[in-house]
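Suppose a classmate hands you a notebook page containing two proteins, each written out with its sequence and a corresponding row of structure tokens. How would you begin to make sense of it? This section walks through that situation. The first entry is reproduced here exactly as it would appear on such a page.
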Amino acid sequence: MRENGKNVLIDTSTDLRAQALMNGVERIDAVLFTHPHADHIHGIDDLRAFNTAQKGPIPCYGSGTTIERIRVMFDYIFRDDVRDGWKPNLTTTVVDGPFSLFGIEIAPIEISHGSATIFGYRVGKLAYLTDCSGIPTASIERLTGVELLILGALRHKPHPTHFSIEQAVQASRTISPKRTILTHLGHNLDYEKDDSLLPEGIELAYDGLVVEL
């Protein structure tokens, strides 16, 4: 996400380095974490290259559970030990409500990921809800007026911790944005076939997709 001349990344996926090189990402000014599962945090060490280029720390934000897990799993990043050598320079901040970052108003949105409660994020008319299996009524209300919804949808077959395509379509109809992009897609989907079967205003994401809002 780019706003006010700043690049804000959501999650540090395991292929962060490859995605950054492929898409020409030259700086990361902050990271918003949705939850602490491996596919969303295990690329965190690749942030150190951006530290070198930017000559400063990168602030990271997330729920108390997420930040605690990151600080435990990657404790070498946050401890003062010269034996660790070159490592990312990160700061962490626990958020539990709307906050301002670089003049951007960001609101964490609580969603269900199986039995866990994780964060999606709303930034103005944009909402990003990945790894979603349910959206509480209070969160639906906080999504009123969203124009672009990026929503997780794993596959057609139901899954215990992710929306199916059909469930995501129904959630989109409830939220009623102008445009919905389905992400976190499984490899058993056929992009051209499945994209063509979606209702108007709903589409499948793909690597390198750029949306202006």
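The notebook's second entry, a different protein, reads as follows.
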Amino acid sequence: MLVKDVMTTNVRTARRNTRVRDVAILMCFHRISGLPVINEDRTIIGVISEKDVLRAMYPKIDEAMRLAQTPHFEELESEYRDVLNLHVEALMSHRVFTVGPNDPILRAVSVMFAHKIRRIPVADHGQLAGILSIGDVHKAIFKETFDREFGDETSHISEVQDKHLVSS
């Protein structure tokens, strides 16, 4: 199975001059944890993630811990609004790992595992073509295996949902 068979092509993106506030809105309302950062010709120049946004407050925590002081966590939370006013360029990761649309999906997974990332931009000649997440790969492999093993035996899915997933 190839990346192009599984990737999402309708990708939400950011630009380097996008306010972090706008990225946070996208992430929260669309339940995504990161966005590729692109320039005018869709060349991938970075990635911004929830972790990058929260890490912007971390140096103050790190400094307090280094000095053996207890950080004032509530004050740090209130400083979040300052982080929201920054531009993406200030927080984005400039080191971007990508895969190509014709790469096998397990190659993409190996890159994600090696670099401890959960999503990876798909680049075609340096330009954004899509994005692939660990969840996308897992669902695709599960579906392919399930279809091969059980064919049209979809009643099994309903039984599993009735017995295990729906009941609380």
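A careful reader of the second entry would note: Residues 3-165 form a domain with the CBS-domain fold (CATH 3.10.580.10).
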